[in-house]
Predict the 3D structure of the following.
Amino acid sequence: MAEKKRTRQPNGASSIYFGKDGKWHGRVTVGLRDDGKPDRRHIERKTKAAVTKAVREMERARDEKKLRKPGQSWTRQAWLEHWVENIAKPDISENTYDGYEVDVRVHLVPGLGAHKLDRLEPGHLERFYQRMQEAGSSVGTAHHAHRTIRVALGEANRRGHVATNAAEIARAPRLEEEDIEPFTIEEVQSVLVEAAKLRNSARWVVALALGLRQGEALGLHWEDVDLDAGYVRIRKNRLRPKYAHGCGDDPCGRKAGYCPQKQQTRREHKSTKSRAGRRTIGLPDPLIKILRQHQEAQECERIAAGADWEGKGYVFASLTGGPLSPNTDFHIWKRLLRDAGVRDGRLHDARHTAATVLLILGVPDVVIDSIMGWEPGGAARMRARYMHVTGTILRKVAQQVGDALWELPETN
C-alpha cells in the first residue's frame, strides 16, 4: 500500500508557502517563548528562492545559537543603562562601577545614540572610537570605552539579545606601550631624604621598598603589621571617597565633595579581592625601625587630638586618625619628587622601582610574584611589564660574558 502523502510539515519543522497576498512566506521554529508556546519566526519574500534562502539562514543561526531572543527589542541606550545599573553594579567593585558608569553616561550613550542594539556593527564602533579621539579624548579613554561596551555586549549576547558581540570583532584603539624607566637607587635615596621631612614619611618608604599599590598602602591597618615578627599582611584596599550633599532644603551651590555638610556614600576600604593580592611581606630591618618611629609619632598625634581622634587603626592616617585621601596622597608624591630634585613620575612608578630592585637582587621569580601580589596565571606577563633591565644588570651581564669569553685558560 502506497504511503499517504503528507500534507503538512511535522511539528517544529520549518514551513514555506505561497500566500494569498502574492508573496512567499516562511515559518521557522526557533524555541519556546516565556509562556511555553513555540516561538515561530515569520519571513516574507517575493520569490520562493529568496524565502527558502532566508529560512535556511535562520535555521543555521538557530542551530549555532546566534539568533536573538524574542521579547524586548533593546535600544543601545536602554541596554547600556540597564546593564550598568542592574547587571554589572551588584557584582563589581565601586571603582570598576565608576569606570563603567562614566563610559556609559559620558561616551557610549551620547556617541552611539538610540538605535537598535541588535543592529550595532563593528564599523559603527570603530568610527565611534575615532570620533572620540577627534573630539579630544585620549586613546586610553577610547580604549576604556571599548572594554566597557565589550563587556556590556558580551552579557547581551549571553542572554540572547544580540547574535554576536560587535565589540569582539571591532578593532580597539591601539594603545602604545608606555616606556617606563624605574627610579635609580640614587633617585630613591634622594626621595627618601626629602620624605623624612614630611609627616607620614614612612608612607613613601613603604611605596619604594615594598612596592605596595596606592590603595594597599592607604588601606593598611596596624592590626595587619607585626613589627616584632617583621612582616605585614596585605588584606585591605582604600577606596576613593564619594560624597552626597547634606545641605537638604538649603542647597550650598557647590559640588557634593565641597558641601560643608557632605555625607560619604562609599565605604572607606574593601577587602583585597584576589588570592594573590592577599599576601604577607617580610619587612627589612631599617623599615621596621622607621615604622616604629612612625607609630610613636602617631601616638603623639592621638594624644594631641584628644576626643577628636577617630581611632580607625590606619597606619597612615590624618591628624585625627581618619583615612587619607588618595587624591591628596597623589599630589604629595608629585611635590615630593619636585622637592627632591628627581624627574617626574607616576606614583605607580614606585611599584615598578620596587620590582626592579628585586630583579637586581636576584630574588627568585616565585618569591617576587608573592611580594608583588601577582596572580600565578599572569605573573610572567606582569614581570615583563614591571621589571626593567637596568644599567646595573647590563653591566653585570657584560662582565660575566667577558669573563666567559676572554678569560684565558690556565696552563701548566
In short: The mean pLDDT is 82.
